[in-house]
Amino acid sequence: MAVGSPENRDTWGSKVAFILAAAGSAIGLGNIWGFPTQAGRNGGAAFLVIYLIAVAVIGAPVMLSELIIGRKTQRNPVGAFKQLAPRSAWYMVGGLGVLGGVLILSFYSVIAGWTLAYIIKAVTGAFRSEIDTAALYNSVSGSAVPAIGWHLLFIVITVWVVLGGIRQGIERWTKILMPVLFALLVLLAIRAVTLPGAGTGLDFYLKPDFSAVTAGVVVNAVGQAFFSMSLGMGAMITYGSYVSKKDDLVSSAAWVTGADTLIAMMAGLIIFPTLFASGFDPNVEGPGMVFVVLPSLLASIPPEPYGGLIFGTGFFVLLGIAGLTSSISLLEVGVTWAVDETGFSRKKAAITLASIAFIVGIPSALANGAVPWLTSIPGIGMDFLTLMFTIFGVFALIVGALFISVFVGWYWGIENAGEEVRANDGKFPLGRTWAFLIRWLVPIALAGVLINTVLQTF
Questions:
Q1: Contact residues for 311 (Cβ-Cβ < 8 A; gap 6+)
Q2: To 10 degrees, the CA torsion angle through 2, 21, 64, 429?
Q3: 214-255 pLDDT, tens per residue?
Q4: Cα–Cα distance measured from residue 304 to residue 307, given in angstroms and rounded to the nearest whole number
Q5: Which of 88, 219, 434, 450 is most buried, judged by most C-beta within 10 A?
């Protein structure tokens, strides 16, 4: 019997454990700064409304489709497509997800590693009113040894969790990390909305003005809804492959989608009141907002210096946890493939793929000023980390999700997918609605996001 065969495959200990793990996969650094950044650049509350609609009609159907493929086959993304579409090229969609997971981890761990450095900075009292936040950021991300060191440390932590397997590793730690993440979000949001002047930020974030909505705002909202849920790379296929046939896939997908959306919205309740209370423009790019602007704001939270110590530490612990729960799933996609398809042990697969991610990620770690030509690649004009993000963190995910929706909606078929959903109790709530969305609206919307992204990038 093969090492990764369905007969001896591990499963989640409970439905709650799966929801926490899958939500942890979806919830990442993009939720904490990606969503607030996009909302700040696209009108605040009006963007939020469109985003919520996009989550419901685009993100959730793709989420459910990935879970259906995973549970039906109980295989990794490559093996799943091989089983459902034998003697065809569909397995390449799964291969793109596996490759994308490892390569996204290569640069994701660089940024997540910065959060570890900032936790230490916050705990040791570096967040003071006289802090030069730009210099602090450069000392962490712009110097070769610290940047590579924090990148390596985050990779090691990720491997340590994944080595424990589904129940003793991923499930065990997400049961701890996700409640802590949510508790920190609540505490930080309460403090943010009670800052003097926070009301202006709340108005910007919660009172929509649709007069400024353009086609570009709509496309950006659709794109953010998709990106924030970690779809298109097979993570949900992988996590779905460990789901019991007794579990309700529709409610599971709804819980994961809801948790991911709630976290993004709560991040906005932290970011916008804090920015407006200090008189900052909400139109600030992601890393600059989190690692340059926010530390100076956190340092000024009364009473000084304890406000910066407590609030700053809490925020970057939150960011680090969000990064870790996502990096675990990035590595797990490749590990599951290696175990299923090559017969590797979990230990050998995790260490091998993490080592590849670390080595490939070194240029990203050096791309923030440590090596000039990596900071601005000749002929391209962007830094290496941004280039990797654009190729694998944007285009590969859109293409992956587009093909998944076409595969489920048209090739493998709505009827086969529906049969898997009904395997536990014979029911498929909103099945016809899902069928219409995954066959028509989702592919059209993702094609629009892809075209728009190409035009914006080139």
A1: 188, 191, 298, 301
A2: 120
A3: 888 888 888 788 778 889 999 999 999 999 888 999 999 999
A4: 5
A5: 434
